[in-house]
Structure formats: C-alpha cells, structure tokens
Amino acid sequence: MDTRNNVTLCDSHKFKLVKLNVVKFAYMHLAALYGAYLCFTSAKWATIIWAFLLLEGAKLGITAGAHRLWCHRAYKAKMPLQIILLILNSIAFMNTAIYWVRDHRIHHKYTDTDADPHNSRRGFFFSQIGWLFVRKHPQVMEKGKTIYMEDIYSNKLLVFQRKYAIIVIGLWAYVIPTVVPMYFWNESLNNSWHICTMLRHVLTINLIFLVNSIGHKWGNRPFDKSIRPVENVAVSILSTGECFHNYHHVFPFDYKASELGDTMFNAATIFINFFAWLGWAYDLKIIPDKMIIARSQRTGDGKNLWGWGDKDQTEEETKNVELLYCKN
C-alpha cells in the first residue's frame, strides 16, 4: 500500500453519505441557479451590487481571516480588525472559523493523503465539494486530534463565534444579507433570498474551493515539482489571491500567500496592506527573495511565469541561502 507519513495516499475506503448535507447543498445550488436567473429578469441593480459586495467580503473573511491570520499566523491583527474579519468570516459561513482552521492545518500537514479532508487524489469533484457530502475519512479524524489548536481555542472571538454560531452566523450569513435590500430599496423577499443569500453563498463556497480542486491539478510547480499544489493565476483572481498554491505550500507563513510583490492578482494582500497602513495589522511575515530563488532553483519545475528561476544567483549563493533559511 502506498503511504506517506503513516497515512495512505488514496485507499479504497467507502465513504458514507451524509444525506442531510446532500439535500442541503442540492437545494442551495438549485436556489443559486434560480438567483442567477433573477439577476437578469427582475432584480434591482442595488441588489446585485449588494450581493457582489457580500461575496467579496465573505471571501476576505476566509482568505485574510481564517486562512492567513488565524490558521497560518502570517500576520497579527488588533481587535477592531479581528472583529471585522470575524463578521466577514460569518458571512462566508464555511462552518465556524475554528472548524475551518483545524481542517486547513490538517490539509497542510497531510496534503493529498487520506488524512487530508479534501484529498485531491480522489478526483476533481471530491476535492471541490464532494468531500462535504460524506463522513470524514477515519484518518482525517485520527490525525485531526494531533493538530495544534491551542492558539485558536484561546482566541475569545473565535470561541464566541463557535459558541453562538446559530445566532452569529445566522444573522450575518442569512438575515442581514436578505433583509437589507428589502428594507432599504424595497427589493422582494424572493430576489433578496435567492440572490444575496443563496447565490452569494454558493459562489463563495465554490470560488474558494477551486483552490482545493484546480489548485491541486492544473498549473505550474515552480517551487516544488514533487507536490501536487500548483500555481493558477485565474483561480487566484477568483479567490482573492489564494492560488499561488505551489508557493503557498512551500512557504505557508508568507502573509501574501504569493511570490508576487504585495498586490498583483491578490485582493486579500491589498486588504491586509490597507489595515497595516492603518496600524491594525502588523508583524507581516514575508519570505526573502533569495530564499524563494534558492528553492525554485533547487526543487522547482523551471516553469515559473515570473522568472524566479532565472534570477542571477550563483550556485554558492543558493547553497548559502538554503543553509540559512530552508528547513524542509
């Protein structure tokens, strides 16, 4: 049996459907399709704009919040910013932030094995959304108990969100998105619910999870050709900057989650930079260019679109950088 780190890569485990989840996601996707139809037939422009703003905010609640801040601790945030991110994360409703962080830390430690909740070796559909339809693989449950989470459990905001999830998430993900258009510009309940809540929610889930599916399948591997995560610019744009994924799996603590400057194709980095300028985000972690070049030259596939492997760095410099920085 092919194994890695005492876990199987893709065994013959028979997953058990969670029927309630199947029904729930089927309804959500059908309702979202109807919402898309309503955008072209009866919705007011203000409603469509409101839904778009909610979508972008929700994605930031995952990318800048649950992912870069809480999961990878790639930067620190003062309380006002954490509250904003918690609200945006609640709008996204991809379970509570605590649950999301735990799953993502497992994903990084056991990438593309059966201990990875959305193991890409099981196919595009499974890694995109199918993993939400079934009970977790036993190895996900087993290895999940070993993941460090004390920093997350000690965060009072995240604990508050989990403790009062029905109220907090229900309010921000469902009530407010639906009620605002009805109250402020007399939109119908039908349009508000299907566009601002269902369509927006389904788009949030699927655009973020493109990183799990396409981000582990189609693209270049300029930093480590031995792993499945890839670089895909189109998905990065759709997910506010998260699909420089080969880079991210090699250097998970870079607050940009990207090798490209501060802002290129990366709305989450622009968001973090703004709050850094405001003083609410600080201790932003970055990876030195020489370290990036060294890793690209040592283990990459030579297909980086941005030329990291072509930078003028001698073999001796590369070795010195590896000794100074590289730990994997």
From TrEMBL:
It comes from the Eukaryota. GO terms for molecular function: iron ion binding; stearoyl-CoA 9-desaturase activity. Keywords: Fatty acid biosynthesis, Fatty acid metabolism, Iron, Lipid biosynthesis, Lipid metabolism, Membrane, Metal-binding, Oxidoreductase, Transmembrane, Transmembrane helix. It comes from Cydia pomonella (Codling moth). The histidine box domains are involved in binding the catalytic metal ions. Belongs to the fatty acid desaturase type 1 family. This is Desaturase. InterPro entries: Acyl-CoA_DS, FA_desaturase_dom, FADS-1_CS. PROSITE patterns: FATTY_ACID_DESATUR_1 (PS00476). Residues 46-252 form the Fatty acid desaturase domain. One of its GO terms (cellular component) is endoplasmic reticulum membrane.
